[in-house]
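Quick start: read one record
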Amino acid sequence: MKTFVADIIPKIKKFSKQIDQRVVLINNNWIFINPEDGIKYTYIFKSGGELLLSANGNVTKGKWEQLNDGLLLIEDVVNQSILFRYDFFDGIVLALNKEGTQEHALFINESKSNMSFTTIQDINNFLSERYLTKTEPKSIGNGPRKQQELLVWLLIGAIVLGVLLAAYVDGGGLE
């Protein structure tokens, strides 16, 4: 699985909900759009530790295991195993940090979001709608709502920057 650097994820951890990740992970379509090539991957975590990974209709089977201390092990997918730490999780948005690195992968629960995602722009629009356009009384000053709005915009910016940087590097711009 390809991941991308998102420095903003650790900064929004305080907005992550403390819920049973295992219950929400199972039998939902978790979408990851690779910022390097734009391919949409669907991860389906099944009970019993089976993992289905679909890309363009081609399915690969693997395994997954939720470990203690907020760790998620994904095994035997494309002949590799990766250990992740939950960085952000609210039941619809999931950010995983590849253990021991600054690499992050952002997933959207397509089953719960009631939307279909095919591009990173779709995800940006969803994040903007989900966190920035809720009808709530306007906050005054620099309260928690304003901080949340700023962090979401920074997250969207980090995603766009990751896509642009990947395209720049792939195009030979850093040789």
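The longest helix spans residues 144-170.
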